[in-house]
Design brief:
5 helices, 19 strands, Tumour Suppressor Smad4, Rossmann fold, about 280 residues, alpha+beta, 2 domains, six-stranded antiparallel sheet, globular
Length: about 280
């Protein structure tokens, strides 16, 4: 990659990680690359995220809006999105400078809340993982009418509803019993949380679909969570509209780790089997 201007985003409230950010800025400077710490400029050529997945999620909307490629350095816990380990940081950055990496385009979501008369409640929100409608811990079960474009899907009776991207399919969606979708697919996943009805199962929709949900009374004052942050409070008869955002997140992937390797190592999916190479007899057949 041709990099002249790099942003370094550090996890908030961590002096240790901010110090690492300053050291990284010095490393970039030795290669004649201008840097900014904890600030995003539309003219940047790359964003280096130092922290965990939460740190990356908090800047994904800005990065996708400006089309800035992002690389995540895992200095947090899980590190599913920030897949480069701390010890691999400088070799990975050298590989990026040598153009030896791949940039994946990860689908983003655009969500907006409308009142029962169609009036918008503030500005739209954007998510890399998911948009979640969730009730309070002691509130009764919710009834959520759901449509794909103009077509009625069903009315969910559940503790909530998750609308996720393939990237988010391994997050809250997976915990709620939703399917794993490969991160480079384009699809909308709709998964009820603890549904009352046994026949309520997750569905996968076209990336061109617009998902509309309406909260039926008597439920009211439920929360809409956008990538782990409260976006809005939804009242009875309000509408939530979720669709694919116009611009994806450009995520730089590790050249040494495939998608299923990360699934096995981070989530213990299928056990921690080291993997087996494809037999040579298959070759190019």
């Amino acid at each position: 990659m041709n990099i002249h201007y790099a942003g370094i985003i550090t996890r908030k409230g961590s002096p240790e990680i901010r110090l690492i950010g300053k050291q990284l800025a010095h490393w970039y400077g030795q290669r004649s690359i201008k840097t900014e710490l904890d600030r995003i400029d539309p003219d940047m050529d790359i964003l280096t995220i130092l922290g965990g997945d939460g740190t990356l999620l908090h800047v994904a909307d800005q990065a996708s809006c400006h089309g800035i490629p992002v690389v995540g350095i895992n200095l947090g816990d899980l590190g599913f999105l920030t897949e480069v380990a701390a010890a691999e940081m400088y070799p990975a950055l050298e590989a990026i400078l040598a153009d030896q990496v791949r940039i994946e385009e990860r689908m983003m979501l655009r969500a907006k809340l409308l009142g029962e008369n169609g009036e918008p409640s503030g500005e739209p929100c954007f998510a890399l993982n998911e948009v979640v409608i969730v009730k309070g811990s002691t509130a009764p079960i919710m009834r959520l009418g759901c449509w794909a474009d103009q077509e009625y899907i069903t009315t969910y009776k559940a503790d909530g509803l998750i609308i996720s991207t393939p990237t988010g399919s391994t997050a809250y969606n997976l915990s709620a019993g939703g399917p794993i979708a490969h991160a480079e697919l384009e699809t909308l996943l709709v998964t009820p949380i603890c549904p009352f009805m046994l026949e309520s199962r997750p569905v996968l929709l076209s990336p061109r679909s617009r998902v509309t949900t309406q909260l039926a009374p008597p439920s009211t004052d439920v929360k809409i969570i956008v990538d782990g942050r409260v976006g809005w409070t939804m009242q009875a008869n309000d509408f939530l509209i979720v669709e694919a955002a116009a611009k994806p997140l450009r995520l730089i992937s590790s050249p040494h780790k495939g998608y299923f390797t990360i699934l096995r190592n981070k989530l213990n999916w299928g056990g921690r089997d080291p993997g087996h190479p494809l037999p040579d007899v298959i070759g190019n057949n």
